[in-house]
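re the bet — no i am not wrong, look at it urself. input seq straight from the record:
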Amino acid sequence: MSTSTARRVGPAAAGKACGVNQTATFQRTNGTFVAQVHGLELSAGIDKDMVEILDQALATHGVLFFRNQQGLNDDSQQAMIQQFGPPVVTALKEIASDHPHFYDIGNVDPEGKPIAEDSARGMYMRANELWHTDGSQNQPPIRLTALHARVLPPVPPPTEYADMRAAWDALPPSRQRELEGLVVEHSIYWSREKMGMSLNSFSAETLAERKPVLHPLVRTHPRTGNKSLYLASHASHVIGWPIEKGRALVEELTAHATQPQYVYSHQWQVGDLVMWDDTWTMHRATPYNEAHPRKLRWCAVREINPV
């Protein structure tokens, strides 16, 4: 593991935010990506200098996690995330929370009642067990996500993250040339169909607002210039290819990108906040069927322009 505490933005970005007198130290915890952030109490607020430092660190490490952030509430979590871009409006009626920019990820509803596995909300939660990139079914898509652990069971199920940049770098140059330029359709309905949902499972508002969108299969990060695969369970097929051939390619590349050497498993603690760059990471929940409540508060910001 490597640690950096330097006042700069770059491959080991860290620094001091002048407005709140806090210093961030980044400790790499996985082989190719993921860093733990030390020294920040997010509920105290971060200024624009620290926002820039964290943004660069996300471009460098892909996934950042902050321990012991129990002081965060809805207001301070919202104040933090909206400094990184336009906050996502959580329009999906099937899993809406009591906040316009948050989803509750867990096994209980906003009233604390257990979620039935065969309900629309329950199937949405189970769909999180598929490898996915948040918001790839939208245009513009989601850029950064933050997830805060509010309530956890005694043995919390981990969340897994995949490094799509390392997976791309490992492909032979000839294969990379074949993939560049391909365009993929992403759809919320395709990913939910895998869970047994049909169009009848969705509200009229969702059907009207969530049309399929197109994204490149290979993305170039605007900060680093690094290329990565851009995949998700929402990725349906390749434009201009027979549907089954395109779906086979998506499955092949997803299997490649989620090999153990590209995956980090986050072991949750109460108060953890995990942020990740959706440009070049995928993630998935792991199964949890216990009765003990589990509740994580989700929020995100989207890209400014279509991708």
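see?? Confidence is low (pLDDT under 50) at residues 6-19. told u. also DSSP finds eight helices and 17 strands in the chain. so pay up
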